[in-house]
Write a structure and sequence with these properties.
By secondary structure, the chain is α+β, with helices and mostly antiparallel strands. It folds into four domains: about 1-95, Rossmann fold (3-Layer(aba) Sandwich), CATH 3.40.50.20; about 120-185, Dna Ligase, domain 1; about 190-315, D-amino Acid Aminotransferase, Chain A, domain 1 (2-Layer Sandwich); about 325-425, Phosphoribosylglycinamide synthetase, C-terminal domain (Glycinamide Ribonucleotide Synthetase, Chain A, domain 4, Alpha-Beta Complex). Helix content is about 30%, strand content about 25%. The strands form six sheets. A five-stranded parallel sheet has the order 3-2-1-4-5, sandwiched between helices. Strands 12-15-18-23-20 form a five-stranded antiparallel sheet. Helix 8 (about 125-135) packs antiparallel against helix 9 (about 160-170). The protein starts with a strand and ends in a 5-residue tail after the last helix. The chain binds glycine. Glycine (GLY) binds near residues 150, 212, 227, 285 and 289.
């Protein structure tokens, strides 16, 4: 079996690591990959948005299954292009990927089908949005409609902050076309979590819930990032909460997409919040989350490749997933300056020593391998992941591994999964 993975982050390294555990795997390619995937398989230095080039490569290499990591190629229609050529690919078509590609589409879908979410108004004119703000309650959330590399959502405590967020969308056009429409949304209070479901457009198979740490500094301070760490499973997502999330949100959304003629196949990322009125939707993504994947897949004992293939081949059935009776966390090591501008090209030392710690895996992200050495090549550089019997043990292993690694300007959060040890107050 030959597999091609699109993307080059920590998520793609983790997907490849998991898929490579299937004994039928012969070859694995990453496009474009990173310094870690270069060891697991072969990196192909193509742009993940060059759809024709990618499909040509898959044909030439006779790839049996392509798995898409990031949202942009999905929203651009990579799955449609592959299907037209009769090639197998895991992920939603562009008509279904719109659930992430347009927040206005997703919000209207939720409203139409009565699926719990925050109240929101849509604006395509700056002046009307400003008028709305004049009588709005704060805090509120301003969201750019389209893909904005995780930077399009602003929680605004004041009128001035909301005006600045609208300026970014409509006046300076920071997000290009993605900001030509905005949602002004009710701020929901509660604990956020991510629930991923594998689906063939009909049946759903939930993975373990995970939590992402979006802010750059400990204690959830500082600017938003792509994610500075994650952990799974979640002590506050009880069986009851999980059932509510599945039955009131994930399953109805998959059915709603089918009714809309936008059958959703692949992995649906439900970004949820547990409020005092129950679980509500914050957002959907059309792909695995990063860095949640790094904390979920090390706990999965079942074969992921087999399930992905069954979705693509149309024989997805009621799988009973096997999970390790353990917990997992991942700590992101980032470049100095991230999430703003940063320099790259610094040598990373200590990887081999860190990997020797029992239960530790290092999933690489913004890295590059050259002459047997690994160098920084992005904002989020490494995901130091540890599995343990409990979070005290897993945290001890992960942070012991972190201490062995260094590169110039390296920074990371020290409180990943701490709330799973101490509860919300001190976490
Ligand atoms: N962890 C957030 C995301 O993958 O979008």
């Amino acid at each position: 079996m030959k597999v091609l993975i699109i993307g080059g982050g920590g998520r793609e390294h983790t997907l490849g690591w998991k898929i490579a555990q299937n004994p039928a795997l012969e070859e694995i390619y990453f496009l474009p990959g990173n310094g870690g995937t270069a060891i697991l398989g072969e990196n192909i230095p193509f742009n993940p948005l060059d759809l024709e080039k990618i499909v040509g490569f898959a044909e030439e290499k006779r790839i049996d299954l392509t798995v898409v990591g990031p949202e942009a190629p999905l929203v651009a229609g990579l799955v449609n292009v592959f299907e037209k050529r009769g090639l197998k690919i895991f992920g939603p078509r562009k008509e279904a990927a719109l659930i992430e590609g347009s927040k206005v589409f997703a919000k209207n879908l939720l409203k139409k089908y009565g699926i719990p979410t925050g109240e929101a108004e849509v604006f395509s004119e700056y002046e009307k949005a400003i008028d709305f703000l004049k009588s709005a309650d704060f805090p509120l959330v301003v969201k750019a409609d389209g893909l904005a590399e995780g930077k399009g959502v602003t929680v605004c405590q004041t009128f001035e902050e909301a005006v600045k967020a609208l300026d970014d969308c409509f006046l300076t056009k920071r997000f290009g076309d993605a900001g030509s429409k905005v949602l002004i949304e009710e701020y929901l209070e509660g604990e956020e979590f991510s629930l991923f479901v594998l689906t063939d457009g009909e049946e759903i198979l939930p993975l373990l819930p995970a939590q992402d740490y979006k802010r750059v500094y400990d204690g959830d301070r500082g600017p938003n990032t792509g994610g500075m760490g994650s952990y799974a499973p979640l002590f506050f997502v009880t069986e009851e909460v999980k059932t509510e999330a599945i039955e009131k949100i994930a399953r109805p959304v998959v059915q709603a997409m089918k009714e809309e003629g936008r059958e959703y196949k692949g992995l649906l990322y439900c970004g949820l919040i547990l409020t005092s009125q129950g679980v509500k939707v914050l957002e959907f993504n059309c792909r695995f989350g990063d860095p949640e994947t790094q904390a979920i897949l090390p706990l999965l004992e079942s074969d992921l490749l087999e399930i992905m293939l069954s979705i693509v081949e149309g024989n997805f059935r009621n799988y009973n997933l096997d999970w390790k009776k353990a917990v997992c966390l991942t700590v992101v090591l980032a470049s100095k300056g991230y999430p703003f501008s940063y320099q790259t090209g610094f040598e990373i030392k200590g990887l081999e020593e860190a990997k020797k710690i029992e239960g530790v895996e290092i999933f690489q992200a913004g890295t590059r391998r050259e002459g047997g050495k690994v160098f920084t090549a992005g904002g989020r550089v490494l995901n130091v992941t540890a599995v343990g019997d409990n979070f005290v043990e897993a945290r001890a292993k992960a942070y012991k591994a972190v201490e062995k690694i260094n590169f110039e300007g390296m920074h990371y959060r020290k409180d990943i999964a701490l709330k799973a040890v101490k509860g919300f107050k001190n976490g």
